[in-house]
Amino acid sequence: DIVMTQSPDSLAVSLGERATINCKSSQSVLYSSNNKKYIAWYQQKPGQPPKLLIYWASTRESGVPDRFSGSGSGTDFTLTISSLQAEDVAFYYCQQYYSTPFTFGPGTKVDIK
Amino acid sequence: EVQVLESGGGLVQPGESLRLSCEASGFTFSVYAMNWVRQAPGKGLEWVSTISGSGGSTYYADSVKGRFTISRDNSKNTLYLQMNSLRAEDTAVYYCAKDAQLSSAIERYTWFDPWGQGTLVTVSS
Q1: A18-57 residues touching B, CB cutoff 8 A
Q2: pLDDT of residue B103
Q3: Using a CB cutoff of 8 Å and minimum separation of 24, what contacts does A60-69 make?
Q4: CA distances (Å), A18 to each of A91, A105, B4, in order?
Q5: Per-residue pLDDT tens for B41-59?
Q6: Residues B21, B33: contact at Cβ < 8 Å?
Q7: Suppose B100 and one of A71, B41, B72, B113 were both cysteines; which one would form an S-S bond, judging by CB atoms 3.0 to 4.6 Å apart?
Q8: For residue B12, what are the CA distances in angstroms to A2, A46, B118, B125?
């Protein structure tokens, strides 16, 4: 099974400042046949289901503000919120869909400082 | 609008059974794989099971294999999760989620979108 880890567990950032969340997979999720990285990022606010932000590690879902961006290589990935807004307070999860069992990171809580 | 809506959660005793349903609308249900993901209270997300569009292929997390059965009725646009021999550790909000893209031989798997609002399953005596 591919184990996903995230760091930090939580972070507090001032409004308008940058927030960076790291995600690491225990093995490469880069599929050589299509050169795609099988990583998605989701945002979850209290009492709500997860909402898709990013897929293929760096493709922003339609309607997601461009302050959210994803990047990374075969095993190390990053979600960046370039200018934190109050509505971005939430948990953020990375997920690998390279192979079953599909696995999620433990989550990172983002708060306002 | 693409939507999925879960139902069937509730309070059951350890060892009992429960069947969850997920009604889909706004897309051609029969061609998309569907998924169940759960979230224990205050915890992270755990993938539970996936079923192909035809229903011919199913996948399970080791934690539920042999106890849970995923199925679908494409004539009713409905996904199911039959949960038997329930344990306290199965207590969670269960989300239904649609495969975001059609499966292809090249890409194989896809991310989940959208997700339903979830249904709470509580296993307790």
Answers
A1: 31, 33-34, 36, 38, 40, 42, 44, 48-52, 55
A2: 79
A3: A61/B113, A68/A41
A4: 16, 21, 34
A5: 999 999 999 999 999 999 9
A6: no
A7: B113
A8: 32, 25, 17, 8
